[in-house]
Amino acid sequence: MSLPAQAQEVPSERVDPWKTSRVKGSPDPPLPYKTVQVFSDVELDRPTNITWLPTARKWVANHAGSQIVTFENQPSTAIAEPLLDLSDVYGQRVATGYSTEFHHDLEKQPWCFVTFTAPSEDPIGHHLARLKVIDPAIPTFDENSLTVMAQWKNDGHVGGSMQFGPDGMLYVSVGDGQPPYPPDGDETGQDRSDLRASILRIDVDDPTDEHPYRIPSDNPFVGQPNVRGEIWAFGLRNPWKIAFDPNSGDLLAADVGWEMRELIHRVERGRNHGWSIMEGSQTVKQDQQPEIPITPPLFEHTHLDSRSISGGHFWQSDRLPELKGAYLYGDWMTGKVWALKFSGDEVLWQQELVDTPHRVICFMRDPSGELFIVAYDGTILRLIPNTEAASHQKFPTKLSDTGIFTDVRSQEPAPGVVEYDISAHHWADGTHSRQWIGLPDTTQLSLFDRSDWKTGQSEGRFIFPIDTIVAKTVSYLADADDPRSQRHLETQLLHKYDDEWRAYNYVWNDDQTDALLQSDDAVERKLVIVDDSAPDGKRTQVWRHASRSECLLCHIWSAGTVHGFWPPQLNMETPAGNQLDQLTDLGLFAHDVPSPPPVTDPRDASASLESRARAYLAMNCSSCHRRLGGGTATFNFDIVNSLEENGYLDALPSQGTFGIQDARVVAPGDPCRSVLLYRALKSGRGHMPQFGSNVIDRDGLRLIHDWIVSLEDDVRYQSMLKEIELLAADKEHWRQRIDSLLGSVEGAIALSMACSSDSLGAELRELAIDIGAGHEHAPVRDLFEHFLPEDERIERLGPSIDEEALLAAEGSIQRGQALFEIAKDVNCRACHRIGAVGEQIGPARSPATARSQAGPRAGEPRPSTTSTAKPFSANHCGTRY
User: Fold this and answer.
1) Alpha carbon distance 881, 161 (integer Å)
2) pLDDT tops 80 at residue 58
């Protein structure tokens, strides 16, 4: 029901305060450090880099615009003062200044170096330039002296970090200069004929007008044909900050990843760091081979805990002696900060230090060698030891101990805890849920009144008090026709802890009397559900109890964190009246709350196809696929945007077409050319959404299919429908026609969708599924796997690896050799070599070693050993077994 955006009257205080909450602190041991804000009077407008200038005893900071400012090293009293406007010295508008670096010997070499971006209409708009410093003690500049030394493409991934090395040379990081999609579309990552995707090493001493820098003769590629001699190392995507170890001289580069990894490279002379053949250990372009062997990263994060890495510096201060010599770095998306120590290419120690609510953009290092964390909203943070005692013994380990419910079995909320409903739910593998919110004591909710880049919150989202609890109990029916068969699976909690949200799962026991707190590890359980269409009247499905880290992949600040509790989801009619009116009457809101039109329920057949389909995509996809959401595509599924703003209609797919001819993200009128539908329909690697669902939603996909068809008439799709009709009418040639349809991925999509409808009849449907699920081509086979019972599906490593089951599996040397050497769907040979086959990017394997690591032959005894190998990556090459 569409309601006007009118405001609710708000009572002055809560009607029923919540005073029984025992969800305090954290069940985990506290992280070793906390942060306190310093330089609180320094106003920075989206800083990108801050450096220390010893000659002036000042910090020099770049803004996201063209301004460069300075401030004193007085954490409690300093204020920012203008230093230089890059637009003035460049002579035209500068969009962003990225880094400022002063020569280490300003007395003899009076040069300041800057990297910046000119307006987007300049195709080669990323610049490395120099200015002459007149007085290094202030400092002041000759504003007519700016000289552009080098420049590169202006479509993104600038890099733009600079550091003087212990050899006196200037090292500059340069990104691939392109937008994220398609990955390295210019193929510059392995191309050394331009400066992009590289670390440059140049001699900037005693420049002349003709030669603003010299290329050192010992650079690795000097004199090679069609190669830029400035390149020191290459194969980097977006090296966001580089830093030298003051002790060893090692150079580290934090490289922002693409789809799966965030990387820290140890950069040495002539190294190839892999982009865009590889993204760390993840293959990106399987059909390309490197001219120079790829050096794996020193350390890599998966996107389970990091989404956009921000490089830092080496801690040298005695204030926290345990960190001395450690490299500190952070993450733009999660706000986490880590440290590591290493020797050569081996990491000796790595630890999370602190989890902040900020977008970490860079670090600044003071004269003592201490580091400060810099957030994009201008906040500067200092690390301090966390003296808080471990609170995990006090944290409730049973749902009954949380104080949320007076009776857990019946889900009766405690006084002050309010049950609420939402107008549209996401697909959760056929489960259903109930939701509650608890605001501590007499606190109330207020609203952000505008889109706020500083906090990441959007207009119309609520500001939640500390210690707010949002709870959801997820249940399922073992028999859809018997309400008494309901079973609770888990109660999910979001807890506002200080300035951040934390996620917990309480897993219900078999007696359904209580739920126990799950550790920060995902676990899976098998559900048995009555299903008349299954061979024995029952089917199984796997439910994944997500880890806390997995939960927070979706509950991110850019998506509003608490997805359901916002006015468009709450403004709905209930048997007791309008829900926003009821919540207002209870005193939950501190001021007037607007009544926007509610989000359409995708199951509401009376609503338009477009509103239902867009709501479905928003509920299931938009937590990642939105601005700053971490999704690796440029389109957006946010419900508040128009279709044009969302940018997926007729858009080219950015991460492969899966063999679909003339593919689009959404091809108006043709679902068979729509990669969006394909990804949601397939099983295995490439299925979307990546998290939160194990079961294909056939009804939801029918909705998306029908909406795509409704967008316009498409001759190709109408021809495909005719093929399905001819198949159904031609029993004599069923197999031939099925084989013909499965000869293309588009035909396979059409046939799979037909199998989920009533258009084929039971006999033809069974035959089509049998042939499709056994097809030799994986992009076709994956479209039919979801029709099979779970025990007949392909076993994959998946996100949770059962090491014992994997090691106990009986192997076949002949089958393994064939898979490695010739299979199209398994591409281990793109990185590894066995004998003469494959590429030595990853560790090489001799045939004997490969056999020993694969386990004994059938019938051979298994040796008793203790493995010291690193855990196998859940996402490594998308391998299945």
Assistant:
1) 42
2) yes
What are the tokens at 430?
A: 């056929």
The residue to which tokens 């490089």 are assigned = 311
Give the pair of three-digit tokens for residue 308.
Answer: 């956009």
Q: Are 188 and 176 in contact (CB under 8 A)?
A: yes
Query: ∠861-862-866 over CA atoms, to 5°?
Result: 155
Reference 651, options 628, 674, 685; nearest CA is: 674
Task: Report residue 735 as tokens.
Answer: 């197999």
Task: Please tell me the number of Cα atoms within 13 Å of 231 on its side-chain side.
Answer: 28
CB 110 within 8 A of CB 103: yes
Per 3-state DSSP, the chain is made up of helix, strand and coil in percentages (nearest 5) of: 20, 30, 50
Whether the link from the prior residue into 290 is cis, omega within 30° of 0, is no
Give 329-343 as a DSSP string: EEETTT-EEEEEEEE
Q: Are 663 and 675 in contact (CB under 8 A)?
A: yes
Q: Where are the beta strands (DSSP E) in 224-289?
A: 231-234, 239-244, 251-255, 261-267, 278-279, 282-283
Task: Kindly give the pairing relationship between strand 282-283 and strand 251-255.
Answer: unpaired
Taking 80 as the threshold, does the pLDDT of residue 86 lie above it?
yes
Torsion angles phi and psi, residue 267, rounded to 5? -90, 125
The DSSP call for residue 621 is H
CA distances from 545 to 392, 492, 493, 691, 692 (A): 20, 10, 13, 11, 9
Q: Is the CB of residue 620 less than 8 Å from the CB of residue 700?
A: yes
**pLDDT (0 to 100) of residue 334:** 84
CA distances from 851 to 119, 251, 524, 847, 854 (A): 57, 38, 31, 6, 5
Which tokens go with 628?
Answer: 């700053």
- pLDDT at position 876 is 32
Distance in angstroms (rounded) separating the CA atoms of residues 262 and 251: 17
- Report d(CA 22, CA 400) in Å as an integer: 10
Q: What is the pLDDT of residue 459?
A: 58
Measure the CA–CA gap between 224 and 192, rounded to whole angstroms. Answer: 10
pTM: 0.74
- pLDDT, position 709: 96
Residue type, 262: E
Contact indicator for 118, 127 with CB cutoff of 8 Å: yes
- For CA atoms 149, 308, 284, 301, give the dihedral sign: positive
d(CA 656, CA 182) in angstroms, rounded, equals: 9
Find, among 14, 9, 18, the residue nearest to 471 by Cα.
Answer: 18
Angle at CA of residue 354, ends 351 and 360, nearest 5°: 105
Burial of 290 from C-beta contacts in 10 A (0-12 / 13-18 / 19+): middle
Q: How many CB atoms lie within 10 A of CB 193?
A: 12
Of 505, 489, 514, 493, which Cα lies nearest the Cα of 547? 505
Residue 407 sits at the vertex; the CA angle it makes with 404 and 409, to the nearest 5 degrees, is: 110
Per DSSP, the three-state class of 315 is coil
Alpha-carbon distance of 43 to 34, in angstroms, equals: 22
Q: Which residue has the higher pLDDT, 864 or 467?
A: 467
Coil, strand, or helix at residue 751?
helix
**Residue 414, amino acid:** A
Q: pLDDT at residue 857 above 60?
A: no
